[in-house]
Batch of 2 targets.
Target 1
Amino acid sequence: MTVLTKQPRGAAPASASPGGAPRIRPSRRRKQRSGYLFLLPWFLGMLFTVIPFFASLYLAFTDYNLFTEPNFVGLANFQAMFEDPRLIQSLKVTFIYTFVSVPISLAVALLVALVLNRGLQGLSIYRSVYYLPSLLGGSVAIVMLWRYIFGNDGIVNGFLGIFGIQGPAWVTDPQFSLSTLIVLNVWTFGSPMVIFLAGLRQVPGMYYEAASIDGASKWRQFRSITLPLISPIIFFNLIMQLIGSFQTFTQGYVMSGGTGGPADSTLFYNLYLYQKGFTEFEMGYASAMAWLLLMIIAIFTAINFIASKFWVFYDN
């Protein structure tokens, strides 16, 4: 008995090669080639990511200096890091910068988002104005402008001089240089602010109406309704800001002229990594530093994911 199978509508009729293998029609081959062509940028991007990734892992165990063949030295680079006072200083600067600037930046971003969410006229204009510093905050031009504003004869000290106050050397004094960069980072709160604003606009208004009928104050509504419902947005912004702060480079490089000064007060971890790799040509040591930074970011990200179980709430 012959069994007939139904051919799907629009499908090409099946055919077989002389060897029994299914034969692919030329039109289908052209579609496959087009698909692979569109995927080609992704494959190239993966090559440019994966190859340096494993190359740096190998170089971390060598004393490669860009001019001679790398020599395998085992864990010597990692052991040397714990005896390097400048590396310890760079970690100290980076941790202070991250743990001070990230909470302040998120708080300012959430505060501005709450104000903009109150139905202001021309919301798109305000949103663009506040978001603009985020686009320019990490650029060399803005850091140079920031250096001019906080220079000894800059706008800030000129303003303080009106009131007879002698302003400090915000950039060249080790006591104030890192604080100046923290203010610069807080100033670029526009990116998390836009995400907060999008989250706030998704909170159903009926919750606030019910809370108002029950006599809940604005602070109680913010604490019991707004914060829990936007906690996933807070968590997302926290992770992104944390990773970005650990990778800070441009601000410290431009503000200090690439030295991390004064007195290593702005020696960020990535800036010191750059100095070891491209100034002192210790690529093996720099690669080991890169992997240490990767582990630090991974540990803090994992801690935040674990802690998120206690304060991040999802609808389901």
Target 2
Amino acid sequence: MRSVLSRQEPAPPEETMGEPRARGRFGEYGGRYAPESLVEACREVEEAFRQAWADPGFRNTLADLLAVHAGRPTPLTPARRLSQALGVRLYLKREDLTHTGSHKINNVLGQALLATRMGRRRLIAETGAGQHGVATATAAALLGLRATVFMGERDMERQALNVFRMRMLGAEVVPVTAGSRTLKDATSEAMRHWVGVTGEAHYCVGSVVGPDPYPWMVREFQRVIGDEARAQFAAEVRTGVPDHVVACVGGGSNAAGTFAGFADTAARLFGVEAEGGAGAGRGRLGVLHGCRSLFLQDDDGQITEAHSIAAGLDYPGVGPEHAHLRDLGRARYVTVGDEEAIGAAVRLARTEGIVPALESAHALAWVIRAAGSGELAAGSTVLMTLSGRGDKDVSTLKELL
């Protein structure tokens, strides 16, 4: 009887935002659903990452790169005029002030350093908004690596400035003409290309998606956002921890990094998705790009196209750890539409002198809405990650305003 009861005992509680369980699982999500030729490559990446992450020398080198090249720590900026208008105390974690203009550089410097440790001389990447592609091209130039970036043809048109930046930095930008010609198709093409060059190239995934260990590894490289923000907020505000932590979610890398700094606190966590790309809000269980998570699908289980004015949110799913956080009730996922995000971008520009990326404007739009509806209590504190600057979106906004 005792042995039967023992077998039926539930698994021990999972540490929230700790190391994933066996086979890279976050609850029922995650895993390594990849072709046999990539399974071995993923094992090599996992082994290399585990060794590197336990090596103080690797961590110190990365910390130096983040400080002297990326410009960390980034500031925590009180949004004073907007806070007064909204009735909440809003603080912005300024990832837009990093070198290359977005949080993407944190993860890419980590993966590029890992690639050199593995003896790889080339980086492969996919990009939607172009910020991950620019960061990859930048890290490759810095460390003397070759870079090949896959990008949907539609995204290349609306992010032409970032395409030019990547090419100026020496990267090869490969147009992807299949499907919706956006991030989903660029990711598929990058993974197909990696199959044939695993011995020489490292696939530098840009978000907390893909086969194990990528969702975990990318979150750990982005954890610097949440750790810095927590220390900065404690120094700035007597309460020590914000009441609410908010970040936009496409695949979810900046949100995962931010949430990781506050997962063990009483702060309420909010991920803001685009209405047309709400994997956590409207997705169903499925497998795409090597992992099991929540994806937008039709009645036949086929992945459907996502839509957002923000290219970085134009992805039909969400990273597996976000799906798990949703199930646990530890984070709540909400949606914002294009017009609301545009309005928020303009409002931040005219009250605080900051032009945000349209991805970040989605998070701000929800803060504005929730403060107005009373969902965010008057006087409560809100920390929002401003994941990137809006230079790349100026031409889009110019056409619409």
